[in-house]
Amino acid sequence: MSQLLHVDSSLGTESVSRRLSAHFAEEWRNNHPGGGYAYRDVAAQPVPHITEPVHQSLIYPDTDHGQSEQERELTAAITREVLDASVIVLGVPMHNFTIPSALKAWLDRIVHPAHMAVPSPLSGKKVVVVLSRGGSYAPGTPREAFDYQQTYLKAILEAIGLGEDLTFVTAELTMATVAPQMAEFRPLAEASLANAYDTLAKLAQ
Questions:
Q1: In Å, how far from its chain's centre is CA 93?
Q2: What is the pLDDT of residue 61?
Q3: What confidence score (pLDDT) does residue 189 get?
Q4: Any signal peptide, and if so, which residues (predicted)?
Q5: Contact at 8 Å (CB) between 103 and 90?
Q6: Which residues are documented as binding site for FMN?
Q7: What DSSP designation does 187 have?
């Protein structure tokens, strides 16, 4: 049975990344009525940052290396959600040129040498990453080099076997709708958002 894992990381309850990831999830569930669905909101319910060597216990399960039971159970639960998923959608706003720290804490639970093997236990999944950005960081723009959002996610997801079927869908210039100084970019923002909705609907088939 196909299974969708839906992860949001925006602090804003009505944010663009949340609306877009929800759109994908709704379309996917409509297209796969028998599929399973799991949701994790790492902004509303933050994953604690790693404080103990959780990675080693996953590679060598017969030893705990000083880990607490709570630490092991949390990492195992997050890892199981990823392993069980056939499709993953991540809603990711840009925070200070990169991803929210809440999402980084979630990623830290699944990024470890056991998942960097070839082939990785996490491979074979379809991954859709929904990016939202207040400005534009597209190729050829003045801030292209400041994009540590998509570049980081692409590198880290590929490293753990989640890059085989990886698609980024981006809504740019989201601040143009609320910032008067960006009013001239509103048509571009609207077009970018509309294109993101259309693309996600197609990917959810």
A1: 9
A2: 47
A3: 97
A4: none
A5: yes
A6: 10, 15-17, 132-135
A7: H
Gap between the Cα atoms of 205 and 13, Å rounded = 26
Cα angle for residues 17, 120, 127 (degrees, 5° grid): 20
pLDDT tens digit sequence for 148-182: 999 999 999 999 999 999 999 999 999 999 999 99
This prediction has a pTM of 0.92
Residue 6 and residue 201: Cα distance in Å, rounded?
15
Length of the chain: 205
Round to whole Å and give the CA distance between 98 and 25: 24
Q: SS3 of 182, please?
A: helix
Binding residues: 10, 15-17, 132-135
Total Cβ atoms within 10 A of residue 32: 18
Rounded Cα gap, residues 28 and 9, in angstroms: 20
Q: Tokens standing for 27?
A: 């379309």
Cβ contacts of residue 143 below 8 Å, gap of 6+? 135, 136, 137
DSSP H helices, the chain, are: 16-31, 54-59, 69-84, 101-108, 150-159, 186-203
- Say if CB 5 and CB 110 are below 8 A apart: no
